[in-house]
Amino acid sequence: MADKKDYYESLGIDKSASDDEIKKAYRKMAKKYHPDLNPGDKKAEKNFKSVSEAYEVLSDSSKRARYDQYGHAGVDPNFGAGGGGFDGGFGGGDFGDLGDIFGSIFGGGFGGGRQANPNAPRQGNDNSTTVNLSFEEAAKGCNKTIKVTRIENCDECGGNGAEKGSSPKTCPACHGSGQIKVTQRTPFGAMQTSRVCEQCRGTGKIVEKPCHVCAGKGRVRRTKEQSIDIPAGIDDGQIINYRGSGDYGTNGGPAGDLHINISVRPHPVFERKGFDVFCEVPITFVQATLGAEIIVPTLDGKVKFTVHEGTQPGDEFKLKGKGIQRLNYSGKGDQYVKVMVEVPKNLTNKEKELLQQFEQQTSDANYKKRHGFFNKLKDMFDDKN
Predict the structure, then answer these.
(1) Which CATH class is domain 1-86?
(2) Tens of pLDDT along 245-300?
(3) What fold does the segment set 123-153+220-266 form as a domain?
(4) Nearest to residue 234, comparing CAs of 370, 123, 141?
């Protein structure tokens, strides 16, 4: 861990960089080091992996916060596994439903109103995690194995919190109700309220011999690997819900859900709008003038395309069906390719001479925009005279 390069340094940004600045920096660096653009270059491949790792951490707000506080150790998968450090958002101490406790304090009413049953089934909490995908993985779909941390019933005690050979007892203070009635004298007479039983903390039960594994809570936090299917066409910022993969419920209640937040790394060549893909392809001045067959990258591989004679800078053509699979539907979007005519630099004297001859022999009629522009200028100055 100590030998790893600083993530901010890998992307060439400051620690105060915004999400947009992080994404722009990654796109620039990924384009520079992408293996497809540097075939056979092991150093470029290594740098590409480094910037991808940096983006995966810094684009996730929770991972970035841990990295800023603890460095590389903060984003290690085993960080906090021993009980110290980051707790994964599950809190410490009692895992009980605090909502019912507060409800009994503020919503119990006077005169012994309706009380919450401490032994009623309660659904477990929902959990969330972020999965980072490449542009291609999001477009085509994939299977990912992720680590999920959630609260489960303790296997040792079966979830009741008591050591094997013993069982929880009904609380003698509240007789299993989880609440204590308190009578107070007021100027309006005696009034009765309810509060959480301090002896059993609202559970209605006392564990005299706590389980040595879960310390009497009946629940433990575990991290497990889970295989998830990413559907083709998923986009950055979307969420996949896995029902029943969250925290276990209490008293036989159902488990919560797992929300998987999708983060898609920018691509060095392609951009996405909906299910359509956009890219720019540079061609030479001669190819644009005479027409040529060029190679165009797509998500399905390279394809040949014929550029027509007289193609202009910024002209755009469409490759139908070469876009992204429509999420949960049949069919794909399209790919739009913008032609960028590259003007040559550092010409030799011979090359310059040939271009000058070409310029002298080319009629103004071949430059319709230029011809029209100067005609407008002529008319404008003639009007002033």
Answers:
(1) mainly alpha
(2) 999 998 888 999 999 999 999 999 999 999 999 999 999 999 999 999 999 999 99
(3) HSP40/DNAj peptide-binding domain (2.60.260)
(4) 141
